[in-house]
């Protein structure tokens, strides 16, 4: 690496989202064989306002940038200056992601090898709690005139690099840099040793942040590929970037196959409430319409009632009663059904819709109730929830390809009760208390429609 230019670089930006926020300042040092051979520094007009909190942090104000060049105007000269040098930055993923996105906006593809001094610091001093640049400068007695200004930070970073080199033998330093290059796509706060046993098999994975805060739960038929994939495209996705910036610990569970992985993911998300699984977390108190046999109108069911056998047909899965009523009201208006008969309007005699000519008169005998019921149920057909086709609990055997170790997933009334490594253990789960979960329902409905196509076999337990 001695003949390769090291580009010590720091960027200031309008925010933290590399795909949307912009660079306001770039400073860089070009080092070859331990000597600074060139410098590059410029304010950049970001083509947007600098948020007040960012100005307060960096000292860079809008009036300072009004005469600065746009990134597109300096892209070609900067790209030529950077050449094939290795980028050295503190939390390098951040700077690199912003550079790649700015070059992309300018119509240029920029890729470079990166060396992250934050990750190096964690390797060099794993016993230390703080590895931010300010803490490191204080630890080594290095002064920076202005923190969060690119020029001062990059000078301080070069001083830190020199202090590290003086502290370690050439052989140790080369080994450290070699290891850093090998794991350069991994997040700075994540120990690469955690990924050594990550299998290329189905399962779920869990990302944790500081103090084991659950960040994200995911699933895949290839855990290793999926987990590493998070850290290879973070410059293209703000969510992936936030995840890479925060993840400090990873755990995983292998499953027999795709069904087990999907069910376990849905279960863990509801249990751990990871901050980045917002879509799967949103459930609340589910509500559905149940139309009892022989009745003229449906009734609302919610909560635990959904996990019990029903003597009627269920229509729709809604987040709350208001959403359920709005859906029924919309169908009522569209099909000229009677809101009073369907329980959406109180009172006796003709409903208001009938007086406006928007109801065919089931409320006053103009339309027979049987005909109205048939029309209403036909209109609701599009929302029908599939009835549970077994008398009680079932065990779904999932056997992974090329393996003799299956799993049995126990389900009752579309409720996932758990998984077992043997049929005998599955029997013990059959009476587990259940709670209806719309995500598990959708997963099971999809897999159980044609179980043979997914390599599944179903055995009733009761």
Account of the 3D structure:
By secondary structure, the chain is an alpha+beta fold. It folds into four domains: 6-182, Nucleotidyltransferase, domain 5; 192-280, GIY-YIG endonuclease; 287-385, no CATH class; 394-460, no CATH class. 37% of the residues lie in helices and 20% in strands. The chain is built from 17 helices and 16 strands. A hairpin with a 2-residue loop joins strand 14 (407-412) and strand 15. The model has no long low-confidence stretch (mean pLDDT 90).
Shape: elongated
Widest sheet, order of strands: 3-2-1-4-5
Using the CA coordinates, give the radius of gyration.
30 Å
Figure out the total of helices. 17
Low-confidence stretches: none
User: How much strand content do the residues show?
Assistant: 15-25%
Helix content: 25-40%
List the domain count as a whole number: 4
User: What distance lies between the first and last C-alpha atoms, to the nearest angstrom?
Assistant: 68 Å
Structural class from helices and strands? alpha+beta
- Average of per-residue pLDDT values: 90
* Annotated CATH architecture of the largest domain: 2-Layer Sandwich
Which superfamily, in CATH terms, is the homologous superfamily of the largest domain? Ribonuclease H-like superfamily/Ribonuclease H
User: How would a textbook summarize the main sheet?
Assistant: 5 strands, mixed
Give the beta-strand count. Answer: 16
Say what the CATH topology of the largest domain is. Answer: Nucleotidyltransferase, domain 5
CATH first level of the largest domain: Alpha Beta
């Amino acid at each position: 690496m001695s003949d390769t230019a090291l580009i010590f670089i720091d960027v200031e930006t309008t925010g933290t989202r590399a795909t949307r926020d912009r660079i306001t300042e770039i400073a860089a040092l070009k080092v070859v064989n331990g000597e600074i051979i060139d410098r590059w520094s410029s304010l950049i007009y970001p083509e947007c306002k600098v948020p007040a909190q960012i100005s307060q942090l960096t000292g860079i104000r809008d009036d300072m940038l009004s005469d600065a060049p746009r990134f597109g105007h300096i892209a070609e000269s900067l790209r030529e200056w950077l050449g094939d040098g290795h980028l050295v930055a503190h939390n390098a993923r951040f700077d690199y992601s912003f550079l790649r996105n700015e070059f992309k906006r300018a119509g240029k593809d920029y890729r470079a090898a990166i060396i992250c001094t934050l990750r190096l610091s964690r390797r060099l001093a794993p016993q230390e709690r703080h590895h931010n640049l300010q803490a490191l400068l204080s630890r080594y007695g290095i002064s920076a005139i202005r923190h969060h200004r690119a020029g001062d930070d990059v000078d301080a970073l070069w001083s830190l690099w020199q202090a590290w080199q003086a502290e370690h033998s050439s052989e140790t330093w080369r080994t450290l840099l070699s290891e850093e290059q090998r794991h350069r796509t991994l997040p700075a706060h994540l120990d690469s040793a955690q990924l050594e046993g990550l299998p290329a098999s189905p399962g779920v994975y869990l990302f944790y942040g500081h103090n084991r805060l659950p960040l994200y739960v995911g699933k895949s038929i290839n855990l290793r590929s999926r987990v590493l994939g998070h850290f290879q495209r973070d410059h293209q996705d703000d969510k992936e970037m936030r995840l890479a910036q925060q993840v400090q610990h990873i755990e995983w569970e292998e499953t027999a196959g795709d069904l087990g992985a999907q069910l376990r993911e849905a279960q863990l998300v509801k249990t751990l409430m990871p901050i980045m699984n917002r879509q799967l977390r949103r459930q609340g108190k589910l509500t559905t319409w149940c139309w009892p046999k022989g009745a003229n109108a449906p009734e609302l069911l919610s909560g635990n009632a959904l996990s019990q056998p029903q003597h009627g047909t269920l229509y729709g899965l809604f987040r709350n009663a208001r959403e359920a009523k709005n859906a029924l009201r919309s169908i009522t208006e569209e099909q000229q059904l009677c809101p009073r008969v369907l329980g959406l309007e109180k009172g006796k005699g003709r409903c208001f819709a009938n007086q406006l000519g928007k109801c065919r008169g089931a409320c006053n005998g103009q339309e027979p109730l049987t005909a109205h019921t048939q029309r209403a149920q036909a209109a609701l057909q599009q929302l029908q929830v599939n009835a549970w086709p077994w008398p009680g609990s079932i065990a779904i055997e999932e056997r992974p390809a090329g393996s003799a170790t299956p799993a049995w997933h126990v389900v009752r009334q579309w409720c996932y009760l758990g998984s077992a490594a043997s049929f005998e253990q599955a029997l013990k789960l059959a009476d587990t208390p259940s709670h209806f979960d719309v995500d598990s329902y959708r997963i099971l409905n999809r897999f159980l429609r044609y179980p043979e196509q997914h390599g599944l076999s179903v055995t009733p337990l009761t």
